[in-house]
């Protein structure tokens, strides 16, 4: 019949388990903090990209409108070849 662990051995095992759980929780908290910082940076980059895209869209619309006008300000003169 196997011997039962002594009270001291049980306490030592229990303390190691608590230390391991504590280490897991602390590691998880660090990972969460890093993820939050990464998310903030990603949000900032997305806002910059959105603003840049909006500016590009406005410039494209201006360019399309300028092409629709068809001239650069100089009137075409009809030539009389008779």
Fold and architecture overview:
This protein has 1 helix and no strands. 77% of the residues lie in helices and 0% in strands. The relative contact order is 0.04. It starts with 6 loop residues before the first helix and ends in a 13-residue tail after the last helix. The protein is mainly alpha-helical and 82 residues long.
Note the main sheet: none
| Poorly predicted tracts of residues | none
Helix content: over 70%
- Domain count, please report it: 1
Offer a concise description of the structure:
The chain is mainly alpha-helical.
Task: Name its key features.
mainly alpha; 0% strand
Secondary structure elements and their pairing?
Layout: H1 7-69
């Amino acid at each position: 019949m196997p011997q039962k662990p002594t009270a001291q051995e049980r306490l030592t095992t229990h303390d190691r388990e608590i230390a391991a759980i504590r280490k897991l929780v602390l590691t998880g908290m660090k990972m969460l903090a890093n993820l939050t910082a990464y998310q903030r940076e990603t949000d900032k980059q997305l806002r910059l990209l959105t603003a840049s895209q909006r500016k590009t869209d406005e410039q494209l619309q201006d360019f399309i409108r300028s092409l629709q006008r068809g001239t650069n300000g100089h009137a075409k003169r009809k030539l009389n070849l008779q």
